[in-house]
Amino acid sequence: MWFVMWRLKDVAVRNVEAWNGWESQTRRTFLTFGDDGTGAPFCIALNGEPTIVTWSPIEQQAQPLAPTLHEFWLRWLADKITT
User: Fold this and answer.
1) Is 20 contained in some domain?
2) Which of 7, 34, 48, 51 is the 20 to 30 Å CA partner of 40?
3) Domain of 19?
4) Domains of the chain: total
5) Which of 62, 59, 60, 25 is nearest to 44 (CA)?
6) Residue 43 forms beta bridges with which residues?
């Protein structure tokens, strides 16, 4: 079953796996909380910035989606987020 926003226990497990599995130091600067259903996770920066991004496993970089979590959900529910 797919969830846009993961259950709390999944957030912990998946982030530890990603931080340990990726060679990119940049990936370790984000906390993943869900995904788009294709494997591209949604993340928030661990540096305190409220920006929501999607992490590209192929390009090994973040793409901005919304300036805040609130704006992310408004855009997601209005079908205005594309990944």
Assistant:
1) yes
2) 48
3) 8-77
4) 1
5) 62
6) 32, 53
> Is residue 66 a contact partner of residue 33, using CB atoms and an 8 Å limit?
no
| pLDDT one-digit tens code per residue, 10-28 | 999 988 888 887 666 777 8
Q: Which residues pair with 63 in a beta bridge?
A: 54
Do 17 and 25 form a contact (C-beta atoms < 8 A)? no
3 in any annotated domain: no
Q: Report yes or no on 82 lying in a domain.
A: no
3-class state of residue 10 by DSSP: helix
Which residues on neighbouring strands pair with residue 61, listed in sequence order? 56
Structure confidence by residue, pLDDT tens digits, 15-70: 888 888 766 677 788 899 999 888 889 999 888 888 999 988 788 888 999 999 99
Measured between alpha carbons, how far is 52 from 69 in angstroms, rounded to an integer? 6
**Quick one: tokens of 41?**
């996770």
